[in-house]
């Protein structure tokens, strides 16, 4: 049964995606890449510093949101208990 499906499948479905795409080549007019043997320390420091700052800010914001959620749920639960006792 499965072999019957393979026999009826179009040729393109059986080929890998790489063989369906045209070969890629870069134009000769592109400049050569800069050598990577020397890193730009300032760029690395700025990137790392920004990443650390964003993560710390995200964690701080998450903790504030959790505390706000707990505070609001606590107040709502107390109000529900008071309403039940009054009714």
Automatic annotation (TrEMBL):
It is a single-pass membrane protein. PANTHER family: NADH DEHYDROGENASE [UBIQUINONE] 1 SUBUNIT C1, MITOCHONDRIAL (PTHR17097:SF0), NADH-UBIQUINONE OXIDOREDUCTASE KFYI SUBUNIT (PTHR17097). Accessory subunit of the mitochondrial membrane respiratory chain NADH dehydrogenase (Complex I), that is believed not to be involved in catalysis. Complex I functions in the transfer of electrons from NADH to the respiratory chain. The immediate electron acceptor for the enzyme is believed to be ubiquinone. It comes from Neovison vison. This is NADH dehydrogenase [ubiquinone] 1 subunit C1, mitochondrial. Keywords: Electron transport, Membrane, Mitochondrion, Mitochondrion inner membrane, Respiratory chain, Transit peptide, Transmembrane, Transmembrane helix, Transport. Complex I is composed of 45 different subunits. GO terms for cellular component: mitochondrial inner membrane; respiratory chain complex I.
């Amino acid at each position: 049964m499965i072999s019957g499906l393979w026999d009826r499948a179009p040729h393109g479905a059986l080929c890998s995606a790489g063989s369906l795409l045209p070969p890629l080549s870069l134009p000769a007019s592109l400049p050569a890449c800069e050598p990577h043997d020397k890193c730009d320390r300032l760029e690395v420091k700025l990137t790392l510093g920004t990443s650390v700052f964003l993560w710390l800010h995200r964690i701080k914001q998450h903790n504030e949101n959790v505390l706000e959620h707990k505070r609001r749920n606590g107040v709502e639960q107390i109000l529900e208990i008071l309403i039940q006792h009054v009714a």
